[in-house]
Specification:
The chain is of the alpha+beta class. It has helices spanning about 5-55, 60-85, 90-105, 105-120, 190-205, 240-255; strands spanning about 130-135, 135-145, 145-150, 155-160, 170-175, 175-180, 180-185, 210, 215-220, 225-230, 235. Helices cover about 50% and strands about 20% of the residues. α1 (about 5-55) packs antiparallel against α2.
Length: about 280
């Protein structure tokens, strides 16, 4: 017989023998993996409904649901490998060595993940809060495992790695911010009447929150006049618009009521010789 034909017959015989020996096991292993995928999705949906009743944030729910799916699928994968007769101890040891190498090469990424988990579970801030950290500030748009996204009023975004957030001093304003406006009136002005007009302006503006109550009073006695403090609270998205609206309303109202807003001035006296 031709040697090439004899080798081909041997390959066919070996393939048939392997198919007979491992075919059923491979088929069962694939079924186990498919069942694990279905069970993982079902368990994920069930866990998501349970976590939704606990009022957890979407980021936390998504992380826990994905973790549960991966764990269930991994459990079924181990069952499938055992069905194929694969020794798991050497495989686990090899994965451990490879994991150590990957961890050394990805220290920055893993640091962000660890910090992201810290942020997600300790919840120092939530989506929609306005925070200030280091030299950056803005409204929280998204919290992920790797980074936190802040939004600015100019529609730009700042993406901060989570490892730059954990351990830093954080100022969280929540979902409202306090304006810090100031207006000067002349010393001859009836300050009580001016403060009353400011109160009316604040009550008339729909962006100004009445709870907590606005803070209005005399801030200081300046060189050219009395400085009134106008510090109402507004929602984070209304901060810029409310500032412009209130400044304009105060200016228009004071002009209409004849309340003078002084400008800085200095009195200079010229003294003659021998004076």
């Amino acid at each position: 017989m031709d040697p090439s034909l004899q080798s081909l017959d041997q390959v066919r015989a070996s393939a048939l023998d392997m198919a007979v020996r491992f075919g059923p096991k491979l088929f069962v292993a694939l079924i186990i993996i498919a069942v694990g995928y279905v069970v993982g999705r079902w368990a994920g949906r069930l866990l998501d409904h349970l976590l939704l009743r606990l009022n957890l944030e979407a980021t936390v729910r998504s992380l826990l649901v994905r973790t549960a799916r991966v764990l269930i699928l991994g459990l079924f994968a181990i069952m499938a490998l055992q069905n194929l007769g694969i020794e798991l101890l050497p495989l686990i040891a090899g994965l451990g060595v490879a994991g150590a190498g990957v961890a050394l090469a990805m220290q920055g990424i893993l640091g962000n993940v660890a910090a992201g988990l810290t942020i997600i579970f300790t919840r120092p801030f939530h989506v929609g809060d306005y925070i200030s950290i280091a030299s950056e500030e803005g409204e929280i748009l998204d919290i992920s495992l790797f980074s936190t996204t802040l939004g600015h009023t100019d529609l730009s975004m700042v993406i901060i790695p989570n490892r730059k957030i954990v351990g830093e001093i954080l100022h969280n304003c929540g979902k409202i911010r306090q304006l810090n406006l100031a207006v000067d009136v002349a010393y001859g002005t009836d300050v009580g009447a001016a403060l009353g007009l400011v109160d009316e302006i604040l009550r008339a503006n729909a962006r100004v929150l009445q709870d907590p109550a606005p803070v209005v009073g005399v801030a200081r006695l300046a060189d050219s006049g009395v400085t009134l403090r106008v510090s109402p609270w507004v929602k984070v998205p209304d901060y810029v618009d409310a500032t412009g609206e209130l400044n304009k309303a105060v200016l228009d109202t004071f002009r209409a009521r004849g309340i003078a807003i002084p400008f800085p001035q200095r009195e200079v006296r010229m003294l003659g010789p021998g004076a």
